[in-house]
């Protein structure tokens, strides 16, 4: 059981790290600001979710699991809001480059 | 060379590279953003060094609030960009500065490499005296009991910085409400965020204050989170910063140091020493001081960090 | 060489970089930034010393860690005061420079405004 949990944790965290790397490559390689924002929010949120899933498997108490999930939800909320704000400014000032 | 060691070496190298980038880049706004990234990486380094309280404080104040302050200032000072790049120092000055910095860094590195090996430490003393307050978090013990004088004077320093910032402001602002520079759209995303997040943030802040007695946390981190929620509401235009002459504002600002001072003088009056806590009441007294401190810190940090948003 | 020593060397390097930036960067905002970098290098050095003093079941010596927490707050308040001064200078002079013969540095109004 412990071995299965360990394998699952390593797989989930590796997948999360892969998505973070994909998001970073998108940040560096995509042509304009809006597509870069898109890469960052989608890939990074999924990556964070996978990492937290992997860590959840090793947690002892349910309260800590609840805190981890709420961390993920708060990061998603703030990421979405900030992305909308940046995209609004980009569109308004024609900075799409 | 284990994986953990390789990771830590990589982290240290990344930290130096990002610090060099922040110094070298031309655009001031970019430099501030890189500095915020540096602060967040430093928070990870603190966790690696087993200093969780420090990681919380660094992420909240060191890169969060300082980043907000510097970003606001960089945005306000954007018209001064081109003239300032014209006064770059000469090559001789740069070479001399590089030599001086390299010497200082080398001396410090030598100091690090020759640190005494059985390290003199105060951890056993802190552990032995922890029973005096009944708190589980050793850093809270040091901050609130063993070196409470430093913490009290730090409150006064915060207040002095705010008084200094206020005294430079225009005379015409001292009595009136200062308007926010930008009114956010009341139906927009920022206003929605400023209605949704502060209740959660306030609960998290109070939780961090409460849990700081036995686990990483404490008054500074809690005060910073509360200040950040207040700043969010201010930036969204949902409320206006109170004027400097407001009475309740000034009361909250002095509440922290005054409660600290009263408890300290009470210890002196009861015969022991300044800031000595009677053992039976140590934990409630410390909690009362921390609550007053958190309120003062929240208001002071909010006013200090929101400065570029207002008209000075 | 343990990881803690590596972080100590990193702190020394960051302090050198901060000092260089403080001396050579012309704009006051960049100087304040370099000063903050210098300060964070000092705090990192304190943290390294605290980590080396781990004993009695703690992960690190709590006294240097408490000193660093105090230091971070004081550094922030110093930065805030410096930024307030800088913004006021910009507002009064129209330019944020530390040179003595800057344009517009002949006093405009007697008091604030």
How does this structure look, described?
The complex is a heterotrimer of chains A (97), B (312) and C (113). By secondary structure, chain A is mainly α. Helix content of chain A is 87%, strand content 0%. Chain A has 3 helices and no strands. The model of chain A has no long low-confidence stretch (mean pLDDT 90). Chain B is mainly alpha-helical and 312 residues long. Chain B has 12 helices and no strands. Chain B is globular and about 65 Å long. The relative contact order of chain B is 0.11. With 113 residues, chain C is mostly helical. Chain C has 3 helices and no strands.
Number of H- or I-type helical stretches of chain C: 3
Biggest sheet character of chain C: none
Distance between the ends of chain B = 54 Å
Most extensive interface: B-C, 102 and 84 residues
- Based on the coordinates given, report the CATH architecture of chain C: Orthogonal Bundle
Count of beta strands of chain B: 0
Give the amount of beta strand of chain C, in percent: under 5%
Tell me which oligomeric state these chains represent. Answer: heterotrimer
Q: Which range best describes the helical content of chain B: under 10%, 10-25%, 25-40%, 40-55%, 55-70% or over 70%?
A: over 70%
Shape of chain C: elongated
Class by SSE composition of chain B: mainly alpha
- Structural class by helix and strand composition of chain C: mainly alpha
Let me know the average pLDDT of chain B.
86
User: In CATH's first tier, which class of chain C applies?
Assistant: Mainly Alpha
Order of helices and strands of chain B, N to C?
Answer: HHHHHHHHHHHH
Unreliable runs of chain C: 105-113
Principal-axis shape of chain B equals globular
- Give the strand tally of chain C: 0
The domain tally of chain C reads 1
CATH topology of chain C: Helix Hairpins
